[in-house]
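Exam revision sheet. Question 4 asks you to relate a sequence to its structure. Input first:
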Amino acid sequence: MTTVPQTAAESGFFTRIRERVGSSLFHMGELTDLALQTLQQMRRPIERPLLMAQLEQIGVRSISIVVITSAFIGMVLALQTAYALADFGGKLFVGVIVSLSLVRELAPVLMSLMVGGRVGAGMTAEIGTMKVTEQIDALRALATNPVRKLVVPRVLATVIMFPLLTVVAIALGILGGLLIAVANLHLNANFYMRSVIETVKYNDLASGIGKTFFFGFAISIVACYNGLRTSGGADGVGRATTQTVVTGAITVLIMDFFLTKLFLLLF
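Answer key, structure tokens:
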């Protein structure tokens, strides 16, 4: 009596799994194809006004987020370091731990998550709105490549600005740690900065900043892809924007693990 429903349920379960896997592979193929088209279109001259507008949108307008996030992360990290290592003279290692943590992991990842969520959602909303209002079809009718016109400036601007914003995040995080070290922990500012300078090496900077080139490319490609495949009017734009934020954050965290292992082998 119960074997038939169980068999049907199991068959339906495996069918859904197979459909999900097939759909995921299909989307991965489309995403890879868009990335290859973008790289191919980058070989041609890029329209400077479009690129400058995206540089301002992605970089300049994201500075406030980077400033607030990085400064308070550095301050919290300094407090937690001193508290956790108080019995072992942890105050002396505040500059070392804050600088290495920020340079290698926290500044690149948190900056990419915060700024990526903002700019990724904006890209998807802009391109998705153009898609549902048939403006992209109008571009194709005018013999204009949507990838060259819409995707390339956004991807290139993101790849350029993410490393620069990471440098700002690192500097502000270290200064936030300095503020706590001097005000709360009563350390000498010269001792703190000297420990930072002696600890951070060029390979640490290369590892932390180098990751953001990949983060920026991945986030912008995902955002543009979701925008180009948006359907269903305003509701579809909202779904695509949400999907971009979630997918972008997961992509950054997964890529961070593999890039960390890669840079540890290289450096």
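Marking note for examiners. The CA atoms of residues 222 and 244 lie 6 Å apart.
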